[in-house]
Specification:
By secondary structure, the chain is an alpha+beta fold. The protein has helices at residues 25-48, 54-75, 142-157, and strands at 2-4, 13-17, 79-84, 88-94, 98-105, 110-114, 125-129, 132-136, 177-179. The chain has two domains: 2-19 and 78-179, PH-domain like; 25-75, no CATH class. It is built from three helices and nine strands. A hairpin with an 8-residue loop joins strand 1 (2-4) and strand 2 (13-17). Mean pLDDT is 83; it is low at 161-177.
Length: 181
Amino acid sequence: MIHHSAPVQDSHQIFVIQPNRSMSWRGLLWVYAGIAAITLSVGIFWFFAGLPLVLPFSGLEMMLLGAAFYLSARGGDVREVVTIDENTLAVESGRNAPERRAEFQRHWARIVLEQRWNGRYPSPLLVRSHGRQVEIGKFLNEQERRGLAAHLGAVLRQGRIVDHQGARPGGSNQRGMTHVG
């Protein structure tokens, strides 16, 4: 899911990229509590019916399901914020606060959508400049990634007069990379 702020100025724009969460944390806890109540009540019933090993396995099952729900919800909390202003392109990523930050000069930054040789895996969306690169939008689907690449490339080109690498914006080179900005 991509949220784009209305530009404060033509040269300052913010993109917030986050996974599409189908359920809130509170909703996930309610679903887990419902499943746990049913599973553990069945385990308790069979424990008193003379099958004592059902209850420990029910508890183990709930612990594993809880861990899976937690990891899934934690993965859905990640955010990437791409800020483009007059001189810089900054990429911040983290959960509740920025944990990593990469900053590039706007004039030299390039948005590259690499095409995989076999077409089976998602194409990574990279911000590159001066030998450094940062991948953004790992959790986006291919269509969202392509749309974001085109939009970021268009924003970067707004203030640029000459493309110093000699690549056509939006053109493809021999290595299967598409330069979009």
